[in-house]
Design brief:
Number of strands: 5
Helix content: 40-55%
Shape: globular
Structural class: alpha/beta
CATH class: Alpha Beta
Strand order of the largest sheet: 2-1-3-4-5
Number of domains: 1
Number of helices: 6
Order of helices and strands: EHEHHEHEHEH
């Protein structure tokens, strides 16, 4: 049996030059080096309307919500770099989670979330590194049956943290990412072996 975990990595921002997408990119490479198969996506490639029960009742899940949900189902773990918007989660990330959480006909509730494991990160130009937003992300994911690692990475002054090559400048920050991704790969691999 193949116990190599499959990890879906993404940032929670739609901005083209998102600091959190940069952090997710660094973490995806770190997780690959730790032995995982990693798919890196950008939420901007999955445009969805704001969740509306009337839209769902009339036509089911939108196309991009179905694509995002299918990716979640195909992976064992999530590696999410979430921005902090007004001390909380971005609307784009919350909306994507809301759409994906909706059960389709013949599908178990929370089919794409239940039993997954997640590693959380946040990047911000501010001094807290997105810490306050991660509290909300952790709460949401835990309540939809995702196992969220207690470790997390927060990157303060993130606008100064990346070199021209997209890599983290400080070795200490890279070490923090490597520690998180190594733990995520171990836990996701163990859960995959038990499945």
């Amino acid at each position: 049996m193949n116990t190599q975990p499959k990890i879906l990595a993404f940032g929670g921002s739609l901005r083209r030059d998102s600091l959190n997408h940069k952090l997710a990119t660094v973490a995806a490479e770190s997780a690959r080096a730790a032995g995982a198969e990693v798919t890196l996506i950008a939420l901007r490639d999955f445009p969805m309307p704001i969740y509306d029960g009337d839209i769902e009742s009339a036509s089911g899940l939108p196309e991009h919500a179905k694509r995002f949900k299918a990716l979640l189902k195909e992976h064992d773990a999530l590696l999410i770099a979430s921005p902090e918007y007004n001390s909380s989660i971005s609307a784009a990330l919350k909306n994507a989670i809301d759409w994906a959480s909706r059960a389709e006909p013949g599908e178990a509730p929370l089919a794409c979330f239940a039993g997954k494991v997640a590693g959380l990160m946040g990047a911000s130009p501010g001094p807290n590194g997105g810490l306050r937003g991660l509290v909300t992300v952790r709460s949401i994911l835990s309540n939809i049956q995702v196992i969220v690692l207690p470790e997390q990475v927060t990157l303060s002054k993130a606008n100064e943290a990346f070199g021209a090559d997209g890599k983290l400048i400080e070795a200490r920050q890279q070490a923090n990412v490597d520690k998180l991704t190594a733990r995520l790969v171990r836990v996701a691999g163990a859960l995959r072996a038990q499945a």
